[in-house]
Amino acid sequence: MYAYRQNVGENLALALDTLRTHKFRSFLTVLGVLIGTTTVIAVTSIIAGLDKQLVDVAEQFGTRTLWVYKMQLGNPHRLTTEERLRKPLSHEDAIAIKELCPSVETVSVELFREMSDFGLPPVTAKYKGQDMNDALFVGVTANHLQLLNATQAAGRFFTEAEDLHRRDVAVIGHGVSERFFAHADPIGKTIVVDGQSLEVVGTLTKFKSFLGDDQNDKAILVPYYTFKKIYPEAKDHFIDVLVQPGKMDQAKSEVTELLRRRRHVKPSDPDNFGVASADSVITQFRQVISTVALVMTVISSIGLLVGGIGVMNIMLVSVTERTREIGVRKAIGARRSDITWQFLLEAMTLTASGGIIGILVGWLLSAAIRTFVPSLPSTVPLWSVVAGFVVATSIGLFFGMWPALKAARLDPIAALRYE
Predict the structure, then answer these.
(1) In the chain, where the domains are located
(2) Which tens digits make up the pLDDT trace of 257-267?
(3) How far is Cα 313 from Cα 340, in angstroms, rounded to an integer?
(4) pLDDT classification of 162: cutoffs 50, 70, 90
């Protein structure tokens, strides 16, 4: 065992000495491996960061919450004609879900003007000569905060009585508060939204954002019937369903069955509405991201393949250049296995060096992205570092096999005569 470790150490020292002797050639040889490893680390870090950010955002909106809308959430695609013409959900649908679904604890309703392909239409909010042209204006029921998992920063939420009496009160998001009241107390102040004067009774804490999307922080929430008073034609409802603990699957089935009956969906037809949860949105996102990851894996594999071929070629050249050295080693007692491991370790050291440099460059890219593009999170998972190093080393093992065997099979007499 000691002799084996000594041989490995000697061969590794020889490999490192060769790298030092031919620095530029070695760098060009492993450039493909370096690029491939860098790509894997950088892409993996971005995907891991996005995944963590999405999970955080989804969980903030409730792990016990179902989101019900006339279209499926979390499934990015161009809307079909049928989806565009779908009848919106109604306030009566929300009441039916609350009363007829045993696994449902409570229900909150959001009302807004019809959603476009780009989301909710923004409105203009004003306060003492300051304008905010991208505010999000929504009517919600008084229990909305219970389902949103948000917390009050100041003031209070409006009550059911204020909702029924259509009071002109509002709760504003962190972004609205920062825009209009950065150095003042917003409670009791009056803002004007789309021409309607509203008294601010509360503010919300900052929401976690996904890809820098801070729309929720720009929200101006008013009582449901107040919104109905301002926009009598509004009919686009979004229903938030709080599920009893441990009954997510049952609640989803109950809500789906109830809405299919209420919307007269034939047994053979698909749902003409969407029921989503945090888990389903995360799953759909991961399906999309897995496709991106697959494409990037193929691209990085091309770099690794090119790097492997380069390593094989340079090792074949090295065998030719060192034919006399191989003859001398065999003449003084080196076995075939010694020669094989000498060149295999040299090839593996080459690609492992490229892998280590690629990991460092990928980590630096990830840090740079995290610093200069905060909306695009990136974090390097440990498994990607280990996988990058193992794959890079394996490339050297695989593509170095032929040159190593060729060197080991050289006839020592012919090798000593080689000029």
Answers:
(1) 2-56+284-417, 115-234
(2) 999 999 888 88
(3) 16
(4) very high
The predicted-structure confidence for 227-277, as pLDDT tens digits, reads as follows 999 988 888 898 988 888 888 889 889 999 999 999 888 888 888 888 888
361-415 pLDDT tens trace:
988 888 888 788 776 777 788 888 888 888 888 888 888 888 888 887 877 666 6
Structure tokens at 294: 């697959």
